[in-house]
Design brief:
mainly alpha, 13 helices, 73% helix
Length: 242
């Protein structure tokens, strides 16, 4: 529930005045010099493209190993424009982190857990988390890389702090409704519950290669994936039962 749909980034690129200036600069550059490959006067689309490529680059190589030159080469923009939009390599990395959290939290909000009975809502949330993280290993790698940095950049982002408030509220609501209905025991902290769900789903992706190699198991087959998904859901549900 942590773990790429590209909504607008909330850092400096989302500032409307800055976007207007960016579009003006792109037009000016195009008028005064041969246009760069694939140049566009759509700043939102340009930034979305940069964020998509940068996500894969930072997930694969980390902050230290990623190269702005490589990101520029793989997008329809330039190194100069990347710095214009995001300020620095670190600014782009933080924007990638914010976009990664924004995406998963937005999709979580679409689950409409409040419309479901408590146990079904919990099963839906855990199942979604398993599926999402399996389908988005770059999200897991980004989180792992940020942990190498001891959460330095996430700590700087008020956006990420705010993005994670709704998921805790959703977990708390599902849990409290379950307690009131008598299907969940009344002594569990919602943040601890969120952590437990995240831990099981995260390990399922982060450690599958080493775990599979050590114990000689293939964890990527449809049967193995389905079995592990059901096990994670059952562990969480049974943990909460009275």
């Amino acid at each position: 529930m942590n773990e790429p749909v590209q909504p607008r980034p909330s850092a400096r690129p989302a500032d409307k005045r800055r976007r207007g200036r960016a579009g003006h600069e792109e037009s000016t550059l195009a008028a005064g010099a041969p246009p760069e490959r694939g140049r566009t006067n759509d700043p939102d689309r340009t930034m979305a493209n940069i964020l998509e490529v940068a996500t894969a680059e930072f997930a694969d190589k980390g902050l230290a190993g990623a190269r702005i030159d490589e990101i520029a080469a793989l997008t329809s923009t330039s190194k100069r424009m990347i710095y214009y939009y995001f300020g620095s390599k670190e600014g782009l990395y933080l924007a990638v982190l914010e976009e990664a959290y924004r995406r998963i939290r937005r999709i979580e909000a679409e689950l409409r857990l409040g419309d479901l009975p408590p146990e079904q809502a919990l099963r839906t949330l855990v199942g979604f988390t398993v599926d999402y993280q399996l389908a988005n290993p770059d999200f897991i790698r980004l989180v792992m890389n940020e942990n190498i940095h001891r959460g330095e950049f996430i700590t700087r982002s008020t956006t990420i702090q705010q993005l994670n408030v709704p998921v805790i509220n959703a977990v708390r609501d599902v849990y409290q409704r379950g307690v009131e209905a008598g299907v969940f025991r009344p002594d569990v902290d919602p943040v601890d519950l969120h952590m437990s769900i995240s831990a099981l789903c995260f390990f399922n992706v982060a450690n599958r290669h080493t775990f599979g190699a050590i114990f000689k198991r293939s964890l990527d087959t449809p049967a193995a994936t389905a079995q592990r998904r059901e096990s994670i859901i059952e562990m969480i549900v049974r943990f909460l039962r009275p």
